[in-house]
Amino acid sequence: MSDAIADAKRALRAELRERRQCLSPQARETAEAGIHAQLDALVAEHGARSISCFLSTTAEPGTRSFVADAVARGIRVLLPVTRADGLLDWAVATPEGDIAEGMYGLPEPVGELLGPIAVNDVDLLVIPAASVDRTGMRLGWGRGFYDKTLGSMERCPPVYAVVFDSEFVDEVPSDELDERVTGVITPTRTITLAPTRR
To answer: What SUPFAM superfamilies would the database entry show (predicted)?
Structure first.
């Protein structure tokens, strides 16, 4: 990756992080309700019985109420657990929803760990992002967990990134290691950008 691209990514991430920190509690609550509704509709549209999702931090568009509701409805939800080697393990979300602080301070499920290939069996992937552009290029937070996961999957189901409305943009800086997503979920809409990946 060139220095110019790395610098552009760093600058954009810092701007987005700051913008997220400034959101009011009411704006966060409204966003979580919107994300919940959009994800419910997406799961129904795909007839998904097994999905991957993530436990949102306080700065991210909220996914936790959706995860709890999906589990209560009998949908198998795999949640990511970070590893030191840059890959993701997975754990099945439970009704108890026990959570611990994982690597990098991220909220992660407590439970039996499944290896990185467990995600190969899901019908739909729902992943975090800092921003996504109109070509489906995703800007993550710089650690590469999801780019490695998506890049290593044999048969990748539809992948939707969750962002706030203002984070769906015309273009994000990218390099050859970055992976595109199928679509974007925001609090107000679901946008499908590309056909299902390979």
So the answer is: NagB/RpiA/CoA transferase-like (SSF100950)
Which contiguous run of DSSP H or E holds residue 131? strand 131-133
193 a known binding residue? no
Give the CATH number of the domain where residue 154 resides.
3.40.50.10420
User: Quick check: is 158 in a domain?
Assistant: yes
User: CB of 87 within 8 A of CB of 145?
Assistant: yes
pTM of the model: 0.93
Residue 47 marked ligand-binding: no
Residue 12 annotated as part of some ligand binding site: yes
- Write down the mean pLDDT value for the chain: 92
Contacts of 90 (CB under 8 A, 6+ apart): 52, 78, 79, 80, 81, 113, 114, 115, 116, 118, 119
Identify the band that residue 198 occupies on the pLDDT scale cut at 50, 70 and 90. very low
How many structural domains comprise the chain? 1
